[in-house]
Amino acid sequence: MRTETKVNGITEGRISSQLLLFFFPILFGTFFQQLYNTVDAIVVGQYLGTEALAAVGGGTGTAINLLIGFFTGLSSGATVIISQYYGAKDYKDTSKAIHTAIMIALIGGVLILAIGILFTRPILELIGTPDDVIDLAESYMRIYFLGSIFNTVYNMGAGIFRALGDSKKPLYFLIVSCLVNIVLDILLVGFTDLGVAGAAWATIFSQAASAVLVLIYLRKLDEDIKLKLRELKIDPMILKGTMRIGLPAGIQSVLYTISNLIIQANVNSFGTATAAAWAAYGKLDAVFWMAINAFGIAATTFVGQNYGARLYDRVRSGVKISLWMGGVMTILISGLFLLLQDKGLMLFTTDQEVLSIGVEILLILVPTWITYMPIEILSGVMRGCGKTLIPTIITVVGICVLRALWLEIVPAMNHTLLSVFFCYPLSWVITSAAIIIYYFFGDVLPKRKKQ
């Protein structure tokens, strides 16, 4: 049985230290996820050529994210529920929430498998996959979706461990998965005739490894919360709470993906060099998004546990420290890329036209990253408090809808890179302002009692 004297650092430790201890494993985990995807692209591109590379990347990844991204958003609801129960030391309901979460993952995996198999071809046609790669892409995606259950179990399990205050185990699981994927990519793609199917099977086996590790270590938790297969079932009340928090996040993820497709279409209208420059800039841009997303996840778990424990002043202090640290980090990363400019882009291309366009994009967007930072952190904070509907509405309207309207109207009148990319800082400023107003004047936290 659990000893009640055990210290929970998230609800009792130094706030800045706890946030950083939680932040870095998530950041490194995101890095390994990027490495995982990059090695996939390198191996396929080197061994199988351009068509195969196009078949496993680009639009294929976007199509997969439409389904996987929705489930990942949905699973964030389970993470919040678990963190709140655990912070309140309600271990009975923590256990119910863990078992419900795993059941949601299993059912979600089956649904993604069915939808993916049935609608792979229509989705690829909808996003305009080139005729010379669509058959390869369809083959890759159909095999990829066979591993959907492994994917959903890992993502849900990683969220459970983070909800309990452990961000290191998901990192270790991801490192193992990454190494398995690299080895199998080389073996199945480089030394067999499987082609892109080899890359898909390598992904499935690597995801299976991480899912098995998740289940093994969930069964090693303290007796009162550990995973017990005979207790796997869905608790209706916990499911309702999970959907209330996670469904808006899932819908938001889908709409983000759709808005990114609209932006990509506008970028493509400037020609191949601009599309290549945007792709190269995206590799640098990913560094900032990895870091700020890690802060958002850290804030969600920190706030979730302290909100569950009703330590509202500690939540408020955590928010201030998170915003301060996120701001410093954003300024440092922005300054580094503004200093490097084309030197950073040269990691991916030596074409002078592409580099020139890439620097133009960089100078438009990098100085405005700071305007996005409050959105990610305060959204994470509000998820931790169980408040997701209003922030989701604000984000969907302020980012997705506003960008779509801007891109429909302005570039048609003034077809320049600035007219396209200005939709980013414009939407960030408006959405940040609305999120900040809601956090301070909405019903996110109970009001302080007057003395």
Briefly summarize what is shown:
With 451 residues, the protein is mainly alpha-helical. 80% of the residues lie in helices and 0% in strands.
Describe the structure in your own words.
- This protein is mainly α and 451 residues long.
- It contains 18 helices and no strands.
- Helix 6 runs parallel beside helix 9 and helix 11 packs parallel to helix 14.
- The longest helix is centred in the middle third of the chain and has 37 residues.
- The N terminus is likely disordered.
Task: Supply database-style keywords.
451 residues; mainly alpha; 18 helices; globular
Pick out the low-confidence regions: 1-5
Helix and strand content put the structural class at: mainly alpha
The 3D shape can be described as globular
Strand residue percentage: under 5%
Tell how many strands the DSSP assignment holds.
Answer: 0
Mean pLDDT score: 83
In N-to-C order, the SSE pattern is HHHHHHHHHHHHHHHHHH
Secondary structure elements and their pairing?
Elements: H1 9-12, H2 15-48, H3 50-56, H4 59-87, H5 91-126, H6 134-146, H7 148-163, H8 168-190, H9 196-218, H10 236-268, H11 272-308, H12 312-340, H13 342-345, H14 352-365, H15 373-384, H16 389-413, H17 417-421, H18 423-441
Helix pairs in contact: 2-3, 2-8, 2-11, 3-6, 4-5, 4-7, 4-10, 4-11, 5-6, 5-7, 6-9, 7-9, 8-9, 10-16, 11-12, 11-14, 11-15, 12-15, 15-18, 16-18
